[in-house]
Specification:
Layout (H helix, E strand, L loop, with lengths): L1 E5 L2 E3 L5 E8 L7 E7 L6 E7 L4 E3 L7 E6 L4 E6 L8 E9 L2 E4 L3 E5 L2
Parallel strand pairs: 2-11
Antiparallel strand pairs: 1-3, 3-8, 4-5, 4-9, 5-6, 7-8, 9-10, 9-11
């Protein structure tokens, strides 16, 4: 499974950003896609996940400010992030999980700064 992310960049505090991730390759229809993030010296942490039937889960730190969605026909997910804070600054990684295997994208940098 190959994952290609897009949408990262520099945004001011209080601003919004939309991350996208497209999966290709040997994809299985029953899967979980999601976003994780990592900052230097810290472990990668869950941001949001969405199953192939649309169930979602969010980290408390982004709940109420973020929405994850998916297009199963295109094996694509999106993460809409609003009211961004400097502490949201991180490299965001797309993830695909199915049949016991997890795959990662290359990561996209999100910087929240004035």
């Amino acid at each position: 499974v190959q994952l290609v992310e897009s949408g990262g960049g520099l945004v001011q505090p209080g601003g919004s950003l939309r991350l996208s991730c497209a999966a290709s390759g040997s994809v299985f229809s029953i899967n979980v896609m999601g976003w994780y993030r990592q900052t230097p010296g810290k472990q990668r942490e869950l941001v949001a996940i969405i199953t192939s039937i649309g169930s979602t889960d969010y980290a408390d730190s982004v709940k109420g400010r973020s929405t994850i969605s998916r297009d199963n026909a295109k094996n694509t997910i999106h993460l809409q992030m609003n009211s961004l804070k400097p502490e949201d600054t991180a490299v965001y990684y797309c993830s695909w999980y199915d049949q016991g295997s997890q795959y990662w994208g290359q990561g996209t940098l999100v910087t929240v700064s004035s």
